[in-house]
Each structure stands twice: as structure tokens, then as C-alpha cells.
Amino acid sequence: MDSITIGLWVTAGMLVLVVLGMRVAFAAGLAGLVGLVLVFWAKRDFGGEHLGWALTVAIKTAGQVPHSKVASQALSLIPTFILIGYLAYYAGLTRALFEAAKRWIAWMPGGLAVSTVFATAGFAAVSGASVATAAVFARIAIPEMIACGYNKRFAAGVVAAGGTLASLIPPSAILVIYAIIVEQDVGKLLLAGFIPGAFSAVIYAILIVGIAVVFKSVGPPVRGFTWRERFVSLPPALPIFFVVVIIIFFVYNPFGDAWGTPTEGGALGAFVVFLMALYRGMRWGELKSALLETAKLTVMIFTIIWGVLIYVRFLGFADLPGAFSDWITSLHMPPLLILICILLAYAVLGMFMDAIGMLLLTLPVVYPAVMALNGGEFVSAADSAFGMSGTMCAIWFGILVVKMAEFCLITPPIGLNCFVVAGVQPDLSVQDVFRGVMPFFFADAVTIALLVSFPGIVLYLPSLVG
Amino acid sequence: MAGHSPVLEDGSLLSRLDRKLLRLERVFGLLSGLAVFSLMVLAVISVGGRNLFNAPLPGYVDWIEQAMPLIAFMGISFVQRDGGHIRMDILIGQLRGRALWAAELISVLMMLALMLALVWGSWAHFQRSFDFAAPWWSRDSSIDIGLPIWPAKLLAPVAFSVLCLRLCLQAFGYGRAMVLGLRNPVAVPLIQNTADQAAAEAEQLDGRG
Amino acid sequence: ATEWNASVWGKRRAFTENVEKIAELVSEKTDGAFTINVSYGGLSKPKENLDAISIGAIEMAQFCAGYHPDKNRLITVLELPFLGVSNLEEEVAVSNAVYAHPAVQKEMAQWNARLLMTSPMPQYNIVGTGEPRDELAEFDGMRVRATGGLGEAFRAVGGVPTSVPATEAYNAMESGVVDTVAFAQHAHLSFGTINRADWWTANLNPGTVNCPIVVNTDAYDALSDDERAALDGSVDEAIAHYLANYGELLKRWDTVLEEKGVQKVMISDEVLAQFRDKAAVPARDKWIAEMAAQGLPGQELYDLVVSTLEKTRAGN
Ligand code: NA
Ligand code: NA
Q: Is the residue at B34 inside a domain?
């Protein structure tokens, strides 16, 4: 067996374990470990007396990975971003945002739904997790929309779709993970998510207004807020803007020098929300449960990260990514068509898999292939297939892939956001939510098509930095 | 997909052991959470020190790298206790009774095999950085201010050992359920159907909006 | 056939040309019977290359002593500030002398590693923005991205060493997290700090990092006589290739400075002497005392570096 064959068998074995229900982190770790044993053993021609040696070397090599990969300054953004989200609940920021958005824009047709989308987008600026965002707004926004005469399926669909914005608009745990896997600059990626996230929100809003205009009964306008009421609603939502400004300005300051590094920005954002939560009466008991919840989610994500990286270390020894990208570049198809096929494959895979697990398992093989397709990591824009340099291609592909992963949160059969929304509102079934969210598939399809055709939407902000 | 599953409790020895271990796991989990909090504090000190006193925190990056293993590993068993590590349960969720317990048992035993290997491997990684004869017992130090790295490396085998204990308990729990044909075994995470699971997730966020 | 894996990091650059060249030479000399596959980060992390050698997972690796001083205490003698090394040939000579010392080889034997050759690095000069800092007083309060012993040297004259990963050095400069960054020329180019700079110190020469290439002892012993001869016999040629290649880069350097409008700052001998007195002597004495406390021949190695340097200069 040569190393490529070993690589393919071990990968197939891992996918079988994952499908059969083994926890993703451990399935990947086990596959990586077994693969390493085989690769080292193969080096000594599978001689019986060398099995013990191969086993020891493989175990020690795998045993390096957890500490070595996790002790990284860049990864420290993930727990910070998660903590911000949990603290934001206690600071009451979610309701404040929704209230402000409602008073300002509910007068339009479908206005309350548009408010919901903009409030989720605002909350996305402090929350890194889509599912949590959907759960929170299902509680706040759906009852209100139903009370104002909105169609309940439509209301549910709006929240499920709005929740997906959290992973594009910074801070975003999933973008940090992408940056780590592909070894690109975290700051630039976070920055790149900003316009596509806002762009998605606007497309959702246009779609909502369109639907509300055509089907008058779906989302009637809500009027009657005085200007005074409108302005009074702004201050409680202000900390969100502080956090946005801090994080953005630490990455990129349009007026001059940036204020620091992304890591510092994330941590300071969390600190502002923490102070706000203290001010709103958070005590040790609540802080403790926020810390425990943060720890749980963080550990879960980190376990997948190092588990998958054991598998990736094995891939390095087996040189499978190299072989795959050689194969991809040897195909006689236009590079853009191949890219679209890859994105469609993600759409299918995402129907069944969790976003983070999906990205971690596939990127080590897919990413080098996409980069090779564009002409290599160090290609200049002029010589490339997609008309952008290697670094820019990495950013562009990252945003596309994350948008795909988010899209999968609202598609059947496994659309986690829809499940969560249905779970929060007992009088809504999962089918109701899936039906309500259907129009947003088109919105997302349009967004993805536009991001593919006009990479500038993604690349404008990062191109301003260094 | 993921989520937290209920773990039943009763007065049996298995369940008592489960709760004893849970107490330790909770402490480890909280340590992990406090380490996240300390990251935030470190950044505030570093940025504040730099801008107010022109005195950035020496070795800021080194300290973060020391804190990360604390965050990443300590809660690993706490998460496994109620089945929080992500998996796809579309297929396994269709199984019932003995077949389900058998599948869970195999899965847990494979995890146990991996974790035992990793306890060994990460211990060896720690040992290479540790030297009784050297100052601070250190044979591996950080790049900037030369912090010894062995304490951070030691966290991996420690946390993984606790996870191994947890997996042994769960293996026993599933094995017992399989042999006795139990419907609702104690001390193991039970698969919820999607609706229950979503309700549980919503419950978690209850009252925090 | 013998297949080795060599672990380096980053992308192929002047710094890895010695490994690339030796892989090429060895394969040529053995008609492809002995091949070395150079991997850029796929097999191990830079800070863990010695671990991977010790385990036996890889057969050849590059690492830098300053990344983890406690793993290689003795080699860090070559990273002491102001040793007076002024070009790559001298860097090669002092490295070779230190690598040949039995105490150094014994320390590497703990990692099951055998020193093969060095990857000589030029001195880490600083780039900065605004007015050039060429007086000692101007280093006071200066935030400088410099790690380990180099950071200590700047601290001795009132500088504020600031931890920033190399990959964030550009952002750190842009955001004022640091005022200046210390790197070798190729790193100023690849991390983009030169694009942000107004000036570069041409002759501060405060020190550098030392980055050996090691091989796994068991794998080395398992080579056939021909293979071992091919490997050992290619070292000088690989180093010569490295020096020639880096020489080209240094020649281009002046053009780069001109293109980017970066001012070349010459520090006066007087200022250099002051800096040396404040930074070099205490750092050296501290290092020697630390080694002595652990029963390691620090003084001997330091003297070896000094005498080798003298000999090299006398020879030219
Ligand atoms: Na977000
Ligand atoms: Na889906």
C-alpha cells in the first residue's frame, strides 16, 4: 500500500465512523492515529517486528498535536467571541436592539420582520454563534410579530434565516477556525465577513418587503411610535455599537492607524459587554453559569479542532492533499465551474453535517485544491484563474464556504436553526419553520451567486489593509 | 446534531460514581471558564498598560499560549458527561433498545482506546519538556520571556485521564443496559429526539433575552 | 531506497535553500536511492521540530534556538547580543565551531539529534517609522518587536520589548502597538514590515537567531556508507549555495530600500559602543553565570565563539 491508498482508506473509514454516530472529534482523532501507524509501518515495509515501533511513533506524534495546536494566540479569539455572546444575554442587549429596530422601521410593510433581521445583524456583531442568535430572537421577535398579525410561518422563517448572519458579521468563531486551518490572517478574514454579512441582511430585508407588499396579509405595517419613543430606545442598544466600533477599529481604522490587534479587540469588546452586564445586575451566580457555558462550547470546538488536526497531521505524512489538488488541477473544466461544483458539494454535505465539523474535515483537502485552481498560494492577480492573488482567493473562498455552511443551517432535513426556532415556539412545528424559511433559500442563492460573480463585495475591505 | 442530553440518576453505585466524577468535572469546567475570563483581563491590562503607561504586559503572547490549554482541555470530560461533543445522530438515533446500547458501547470503547493512546502520547510530550535537573524543571520554554512550558503540557494528559475515567463509567453504563436490556439506564447521556433537544436548547437560554 | 522527511516551515525562501540544496545533491549523488522530501509545515510545527526528531517521526529538521531556549541552552550562546559577527561567512564559522563542541553535541543527543549544518542569518536590524532613532536616548521608551535576548538588549537601554507574533508584526507596526520591528532582511520583506518603514538601521547589528539543521541519530546510523558519504559530503556545497543565494538577496536589499524610500541609518561608533556596554556585557555575564549554575561550560563556549571569530578574520 502506498501512502495515497492509505490516505483514501483511512479517510473513508473516518467518514463511516462519523455517519454511524461516533463523535466527530474522536472519529477524526482515531482515523488520524490509525493512519499514522499505517504510514510509519509502511515506511518499514509492514515488517512484523516493526509494528511496535510504528505504534509508538504514531502515538507520540498524535500526542503532540493537542497541546501544540491549541497553545496558539490566534485561537484565543474563539473563547473570547463565545464569552461576548453569553455576556450579552445578561446585559439585556438583545431585547434592547430589537426594541430600537422595531420603533424605527416597523412602519414599513413587513417592517417588524425587517426590524428582526436588522436586530439579528446587530446582535451578530457581538455573537459568534448562529444557533444561539436564532434561539434568542425566536423568543423575543416571533410572539411580537404574531401579535401584530404576521403569518406565523413567515415570522419563524425570518428568525431562522436572520440567525445565520451571526457567523459572517464579525466576531465569528467559524471564520477564526477557517483562518487557523488555512493559515491566513484572522483580522483580514473577519473584516471580509462584514460587507457580505450586511449585504445578506439587506437582501433578506428586500425580500421581506417584497413579500409583504405582494401578500398584504403576511406582514402588515405597525405604526404609532413617536419620535421621542424612537430616540429613547437608542441608548440601551448603544453598547453594541461600542463593541462593533472596538472590534472593527482594532482590525482596521478608516481614519488612521488601527488601535491594536484583532485579539485585543475581541477581548476588549467582551470587557465592555461584561461591564454592561455588571451594570444591569449580573451577579457571581450568573457569571459562573456564563463561564461554564462558554467553557462547554469552547471545549467542544477545541476538541474537534485538535481531533481533526491529528487527522490532518496524518494527511501531511500521507500527502493526500497534494494528490487531490493535482487531480483537481488536471481536470479539463473551467476553474469557476469546478469551484461551483465544490460549493454545491458543500450544500449537500451541509444538509447532514454540523458546520464546524464539516469545514474542519474537508478544508485540509479542499482548500489546497482551490488555491491550486487559482494558480497557487503566491500567484499574482494577473496570472490567476479567478482574477485575484493567492491571499485574496483564500479570503474569498473562506467567506463563500462560511456562507454555504450558514445556508445549511436553514435547509432540510437537518437545519439546526429551524429546529431551534420550532423548539422555542411550541405552536410551531419544524415543518412550519422549514416552509416559512423557504423564500430565504432564494435570497441566499442570490447572495452566493453575487459573491461569486463580484468578489469585490468580499475583498474590498481586506484590500484596504496592508 | 449536538446538544446536551439528559443523564438519569438514582441511588446505585454507578450513579453515585457518576455524580462524584461530575463534581470534579464541574470544577475543571469552571477552571476553563475562568481561564477565558483571564484572557479578557490580560488584554485589558496589555492594551491599558501600553496606552496609559507605555508599559505593555511583558510576554503577553506567551501568557496567552499558557492559558489556552487550560481553556481547551480542562472541560473535555464535563462535556462528554452529558453527550455534548458533536456527532451525527441521524442513524444511531433510529436504533432502539439493545441495538442502541451496543452501538453506543462500541463508540465509547473506540473513544476510550483513542484517549488511552493520547494520555500516553501527551504524557510523553510533557516528559520531553520536563527535566528534574534543570532550573524550573524546564526543558522547553516560551519564545519571549522564557516561561517553562511543562505545566501547560501536563494539562493534556491530566484532562484526558479524567475523560478516560468518564468513558469507563459510560462503557459500563451502556454495557449494563445492553446486557440487562434496560430502557432508561443511569449515568449515560440519552439520545433525545429533535424536538426535545431544541426545547432543551431553548430552555438553556430561558429568561436571558 | 531510503526516503527521509525533512520538516521546515513557511514557504521556500532563502532561509530554506540549504535544505533544498542538500536534498537535491543527495539524490543526485546516490542516483535517487536516497531522497529527502522537504515539507513546509505539514509534518510538525517549527517549535516542535526537535520533538518530532526525538520521536523518530521525521529524519531531518530545521529549528531556531531562540524559539525554545530551554531545549537547547548551549546553542543560545550564538544568540547573545553584540557578538560582533558581521557577515554570513563569520556566522557559519562560529556556528560550526559551537556545533562541534562535545557539550553541545551531548545536549542535542538528548533529542536523539545530530547537528548537520547551520542556516546562517544576518543580524536583526530594526525598521521604524518617523524620525530615525540613532542616539541611545531615542531608544528610551521605544516599543520594539524583539523577542528573547534581543528584547533584553533593547530593554537595557530603556526600550520596551513587546510580544507580537511575526505574522502580526505588520499590523502591530501599523497600529502603533510597536514603534520598531527587529528582523533579518528576508523577514522584513516577507512580513511586509519594510513597506511600513521610514528607516532601517544598517549597522546596529544587535544580534541574530541561530537555526541549525539536525538529523535523527538512528536514521543517520541506519544509512548505508554510500548514503552517509553523500549526505556528509554535500554539507559544504549546500552551505555555499545558501550563501551565494542569500548574497543575491542582500544585493537586492539596497534597491528595495531605494524603491520603498526607506532611509539607511548608520549609527555612529560611539553610540554603538555605548549600546554594547549597556546591553552586551551584562547579558553575556548573566548567560555564563546561568550556564555555570547548571554545570554547563558557558564560559568555554563564549571564548570559543570569540576566538573563532578572531581566527576567521585573521584568515581573510
Ligand atoms: Na458574529
Ligand atoms: Na441543513
A: yes
